[in-house]
Amino acid sequence: MAENCLIIFTRYPEIGMTKTRLIPVLGEARATALHRLMVEKTLEKMRLVTKNLPGQIRVYFTGGNPQLMADWLGDDLIYHQQSGGDLGERMNRAFIHEFAAGFSKIVLIGTDCPDLNREIMQTAFENLANHDLVLGPAVDGGYYLIGLNAPRPDLFQNITWSSAEVFSQTRAIARRENLLVFDLPTLRDIDEPADLAWLPEYFDLNICQTRTKPTNQ
Questions:
Q1: Omega prior to 54 cis, within 30 of 0
Q2: Which comes out higher in pLDDT, residue 39 or 217?
Q3: List of domains in the chain
């Protein structure tokens, strides 16, 4: 088994259930289409990352079911339904599950950060060799990436999720636990209407309802 595991947290693209903060400006159909395309573009890049490391991808999802996810993103991946609880509980359980499976370096990302690239991912995995925690801070005060080389349940407790305090609260816990932390570059998630101005050109909101299948390269 490869030592590196990439966990992707996402949602099956159901109308009205994805990118809900963008629905007032995009409408339900285009917000869902944007979510679908962002997931596919993220996975396309991450397949290359894990191929070069090497490593394995695990997709943890909400909505839908494993067959729907495989029909959408490919049957070469392993899919897990996210367990109940808040975001922190779900992430912590995912880390514990994959460490128990035998991985020693695990990075977890979402699919809302189009600027997350191969170089940043490579840096994240490399620094888990000599750091306890790798974090990718987001412009909105959250984080777009968290990497661990051992279970750290405390990092996911007493966090005000979906707030501008997530990164700072996580960093404070890391200081309290004397963890060695590596911070990646600050990037922007696409969550709010104002963030749409930062979308790369290939996310054409007029045509994003056209489905784009990820490649297996």
A1: yes
A2: 39
A3: 4-198 (3.90.550.10)
